[in-house]
């Protein structure tokens, strides 16, 4: 019944019939021309064996498997048949040849010009279409335009020579390029051609209809888009020309069979001429395709979306004045060898001897935080890789004296994927390639990895291993509550990876404040000794809020060095405005390494000015030996870069001593203000900062650094948003809906402070007493990494082979963020190649950008025009000289009602595999269905597809009815859970 219905829809006749079975058949046909004067000639044969569902796909002439005798016999048979019926005009006599016996079987005559006539024209030189017309006018075969006497006595030239003058020269191959999707059962696709670029060159012929950029492919006609025919003197060369032509085509917006055709013509059986009509059905490797990246179209789609609707990151932010001045990139001689640096020394000495070298070094060692903590603190971690890579070679060649570049970890990992749509691993690899000589430093949150929760031990170990292999040399490991037990897994993993391990002590309170005696010198020395026993190579004083006063840091540095004998690295923030004084005090006390940021990226909530501190130490025995000229050049570059991120800067004009009250980490300060802005509380920032201090007191005066600082911030925002007082928070009679992060903190999921949490508040938060101290990792079962890999690949829409270890590490840290990032990349490609102004602010007509999508391959893109059409913005680009149009639904525009979309990976959803029309619906809601039963049928471009149940189950919803038009991935049926 289905076959009759399909035949009726296609041909207006539902008759079906059977033919003789030839098990291994080749399809060969002879081109015939007959005139009205009794002359019939052949133009030799064509091979049409490569076909699918009896639809020819690739044709060639002459047939490669015929010898001269077979060819003559075949053509003579065709001539006899056509002469017997007094056939006139063009026609094709079709045969099946048994590949085993060589026997021919006549199957039919096609009394018309065939789609594949092009290959015959190219090898014989006869214009079959013109001959058809000339014969209708009375033209005689055997008389050509060159013949003398042509046209006399009412006899016209047909343009077709006599049989003995018809010869073939060379070989020709024709491929039918269609809008069918080979990866989806060759289902026809339709829609708008966003890109159409055809091939050209010697020996290439194109026969096309309405194929051009912007053309609309409808579901009402055949899926054939264009025929491309290649001619050459030899069969091998004609295939090579065809291969080149197919690779030159660019078809975007709808699916096509281009890659499938490439596989067909390059297959050894095709080259040998041994294929049969079952070739496609029995050769699964024809459907194995190299993934087409389509990078240009994806990037244009993203650029158009930002241009029309803005980047979601800019919602509620003030648009800066455009265009921006181009940052001044200092010149550097890339042909000059990269000088030796700290990384080379680490490779030479190993971690233990390197730490001893630090102790023996008179010059103070300096870390530049510009590429990580500085922009995290100044403009919410938004600096993009595109702004880091240009300056990286300059660092390597002009600032090799730097101790390290802090460029990874912390909040950058999350923000890169979540907001910047960048791969943090790619950033690390690209920077490493450009800076091979300076240590790369990252911030690792102990058992929290680079996340905000505790992870299973094997997850942290796996992540550290990947980071070390990817190029991180120095891991600054800390715990948000200074609990060394919670740091041990990370420390051990770093040591096992052979990297430098810097155990960080988070500084809080005031070393000399008797009212906060729990954070005294004994407390910090005790932590340092635990870290020493754990095997760290370096101690770090992590002054995340910038509240370690000069006197305090001097005492702390001396005590730590005397008690442990380990090198000390001091990190602070300049929120107070006097952090440089603390750094210089630390240096004077014998601190081995200190952090700072380049001039243009320093101060306020970032690190103190590295250049100024280096200048202050110049000429002393602790002179770091950094070139002031090079520092100034690098700073000038970042001064230009920083303008790009103006909308993300917090409204801070100067340092503030208020930080000694609220003790908010510099890296959190801008992020918390951003959260307050998003919640509509920016005008109440003074209240938020006071609430932050109040919450810290309520929580027992804890160490505040990611992730505990985030918990304090969450609670502070909740207090202000709900107009609560500290008394109400602790009042057992006053109901408070504590944020989930607060509940998690009091459960001990982030660890425990040395004196525990306040018992009264703990009872209110947890509804029970405080739990006994435990290490969260001890209660987390090891993660099955391979099962997690499968799950992450499915969630991100990636083939399992693309979910490599580094992508798996991302997914283990941030499952949803990583999945969303991969989905974004599938849709828009690698947007990290876009210039920052384009990424955040889009383009204006006349703007032009150069996008280097890989080494040596650059796309030159300019925006031409934007015009409106029924809620759609038609964005006209020019890319590498070719016009490209992208349609974008304008945000807020009224659009037609849309169907639900089937969720990728949801086994309860049955989605449309292709665009088309619903023909039949065989199920209803509530119906019990067995595996294999037909659910519905879908028709497009004369092809009907039956969708069957993959398992037993009950239908919950049916969302379509016969006659409905659907798009690919529209939700059709929902199973009952």
TrEMBL record:
Domain ATP-grasp: 13-137
Keyword Signal attributed: no
High-level lineage: Bacteria, Pseudomonadati, Pseudomonadota, Betaproteobacteria, Burkholderiales
UniProt entry tagged with the keyword Metal-binding: no
SUPFAM superfamilies cross-referenced by the UniProt entry: Aldolase, Glutathione synthetase ATP-binding domain-like, post-HMGL domain-like, Rudiment single hybrid motif, Single hybrid motif
InterPro entries for this protein: Aldolase_TIM, ATP-grasp, Biotin_carboxylation_dom, Biotin_COase_C, Biotin_lipoyl, Carboxylase_cons_dom, CPAse_ATP-bd, PCB-like
Residue ranges occupied by any Lipoyl-binding domain in the UniProt entry: 901-976
GO biological process: gluconeogenesis
Domain Pyruvate carboxyltransferase: 364-632
Domain Biotin carboxylation: 1-285
A GO term, aspect molecular function: metal ion binding
Keywords: ATP-binding, Biotin, Ligase, Lyase, Nucleotide-binding, Pyruvate
GO cellular component assignments: cytoplasm
Protein name: pyruvate carboxylase
The species this protein was found in: Acidovorax delafieldii 2AN
Protein origin, superkingdom: Bacteria
Alphabetized NCBIfam families for the sequence: PRK09282.1, PRK12999.1, pyruv_carbox
Enzyme Commission number(s) of this protein: 6.4.1.1
Annotated SMART domains: Biotin_carb_C
């Amino acid at each position: 019944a289905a076959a009759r219905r399909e035949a009726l829809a296609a041909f207006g006749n539902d008759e079906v019939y059977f033919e003789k079975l030839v098990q291994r058949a080749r399809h060969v046909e002879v081109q015939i021309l007959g005139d009205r004067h009794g002359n019939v000639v052949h133009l030799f044969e064509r091979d049409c064996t490569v076909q699918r569902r009896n639809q020819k796909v690739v044709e060639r002439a002459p047939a490669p498997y015929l010898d001269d005798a077979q060819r003559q016999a075949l053509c003579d048979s065709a001539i006899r048949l056509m002469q017997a019926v007094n056939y006139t005009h063009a026609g094709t006599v079709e045969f099946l040849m048994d590949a085993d016996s060589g026997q021919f079987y006549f199957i039919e005559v096609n009394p018309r010009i065939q789609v594949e006539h092009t290959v015959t024209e190219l090898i014989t030189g006869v214009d079959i279409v013109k001959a058809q017309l000339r014969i209708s006018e009375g033209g005689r075969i055997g008389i050509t335009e060159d013949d003398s006497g042509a046209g006399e006595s009412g006899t016209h030239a047909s343009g077709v020579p006599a049989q003995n003058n018809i010869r073939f020269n060379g070989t020709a191959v024709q491929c039918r390029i269609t809008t069918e999707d080979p990866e989806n059962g060759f289902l026809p696709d339709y829609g708008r051609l966003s890109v159409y670029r055809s091939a050209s060159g010697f020996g290439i012929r194109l026969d096309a209809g309405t194929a051009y950029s912007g053309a609309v492919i409808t579901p009402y006609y055949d899926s054939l888009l264009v025929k491309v025919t290649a001619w050459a003197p030899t069969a091998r060369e004609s295939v090579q020309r065809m291969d080149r032509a197919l690779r030159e085509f660019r078809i975007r917006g709808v699916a096509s069979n281009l890659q499938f055709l490439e596989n067909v013509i390059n297959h050894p059986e095709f080259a040998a001429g041994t294929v049969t009509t079952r070739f496609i059905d029995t050769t699964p490797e024809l459907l194995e395709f190299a993934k087409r990246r389509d990078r240009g179209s994806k990037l244009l789609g993203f650029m158009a979306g930002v241009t029309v609707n803005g980047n979601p990151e800019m919602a509620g932010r003030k648009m800066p004045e455009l265009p921006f001045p181009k940052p001044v990139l200092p010149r550097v001689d890339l042909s000059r060898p990269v000088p030796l640096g700290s990384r080379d020394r680490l490779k030479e000495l190993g971690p233990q001897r390197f730490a001893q070298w630090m102790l023996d070094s008179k010059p103070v060692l300096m870390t530049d935080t510009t590429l990580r903590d500085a922009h995290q603190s100044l403009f919410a971690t938004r600096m993009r890789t595109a702004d880091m890579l240009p300056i990286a070679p300059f660092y390597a060649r002009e600032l090799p004296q730097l101790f390290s570049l802090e460029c990874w970890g912390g909040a950058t990992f999350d923000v890169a994927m979540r907001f910047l749509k960048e791969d943090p691993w790619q950033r690390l690899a690209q920077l490493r390639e450009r800076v091979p000589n300076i240590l790369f430093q990252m911030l690792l949150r102990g058992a929290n990895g680079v996340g905000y929760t505790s992870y299973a031990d094997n997850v942290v170990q796996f992540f550290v291993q990947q980071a070390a292999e990817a190029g991180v040399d120095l891991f600054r490991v800390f715990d948000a509550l200074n609990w060394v037990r919670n740091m041990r897994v990370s420390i051990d993993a770093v040591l096992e990876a052979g990297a430098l391990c810097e155990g960080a002590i988070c500084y809080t309170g005031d070393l000399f404040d008797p009212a906060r005696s729990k954070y005294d010198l004994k407390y910090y020395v005790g932590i340092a000794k635990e870290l020493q026993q754990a095997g760290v190579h370096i101690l770090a004083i992590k002054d995340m809020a910038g509240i370690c006063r000069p006197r305090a840091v001097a005492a702390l540095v001396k005590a730590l060095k005397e008690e442990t004998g380990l090198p000390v690295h001091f990190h602070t923030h300049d929120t107070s405005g006097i952090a440089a004084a603390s750094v210089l005090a630390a240096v004077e006390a014998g601190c081995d390494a200190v952090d700072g940021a380049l001039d243009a990226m320093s101060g306020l909530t970032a690190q103190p000015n590295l250049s100024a501190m280096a200048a202050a130490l110049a000429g002393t025995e602790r002179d770091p030996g950094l070139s002031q000229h090079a520092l100034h050049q690098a700073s000038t570059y970042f001064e230009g870069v920083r303008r790009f991120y103006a909308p993300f800067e917090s409204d801070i004009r100067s340092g503030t001593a208020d930080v000694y009250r609220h003790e908010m980490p510099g890296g959190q300060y801008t992020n918390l203000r951003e959260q307050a802005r998003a919640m509509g509380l920016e005008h109440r920032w003074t209240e938020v900062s006071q609430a932050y201090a109040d919450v810290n007191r309520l929580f027992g005066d804890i160490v505040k650094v990611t992730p505990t600082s985030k918990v304090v911030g969450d609670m502070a925002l909740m207090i202000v948003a709900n107009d609560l007082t500290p008394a109400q928070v602790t009042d057992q009679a006053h109901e408070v809906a504590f944020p989930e992060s607060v509940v998690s903190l009091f459960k001990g999921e982030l660890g425990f402070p040395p004196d525990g949490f306040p018992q009264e508040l703990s009872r209110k938060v947890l509804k029970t007493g405080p739990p006994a101290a435990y290490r969260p990792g001890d209660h987390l079962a090891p993660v099955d990494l391979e099962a997690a890999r499968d799950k992450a690949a499915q969630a991100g829409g990636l083939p399992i082979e693309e979910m490599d270890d580094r992508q798996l590490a991302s997914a283990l840290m941030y499952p949803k963020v990583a999945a969303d990032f991969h989905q974004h990349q599938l849709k828009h490609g690698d947007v990290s190649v876009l210039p920052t102004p384009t990424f955040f602010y889009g383009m204006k007509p006349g703007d032009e950008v150069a996008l280097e999508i890989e080494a040596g391959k650059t796309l030159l893109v300019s925006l031409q025009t934007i015009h409106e059409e029924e809620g759609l913005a038609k964005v006209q680009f020019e890319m590498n000289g070719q016009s490209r149009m992208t349609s974008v639904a304008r945000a807020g525009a009224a659009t037609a009602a849309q169907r639900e979309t089937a969720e990728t990976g949801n086994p309860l959803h049955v989605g449309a595999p292709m665009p088309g029309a619903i023909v039949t619906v065989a199920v209803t809601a509530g119906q019990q269905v067995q595996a294999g039963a037909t659910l519905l049928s879908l028709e497009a471009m004369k092809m009907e597809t039956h969708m069957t149940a993959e398992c037993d189950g009950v239908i919950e919803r049916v969302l379509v009815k016969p006659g409905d038009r659907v798009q690919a991935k529209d939700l059709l049926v929902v199973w009952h859970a």
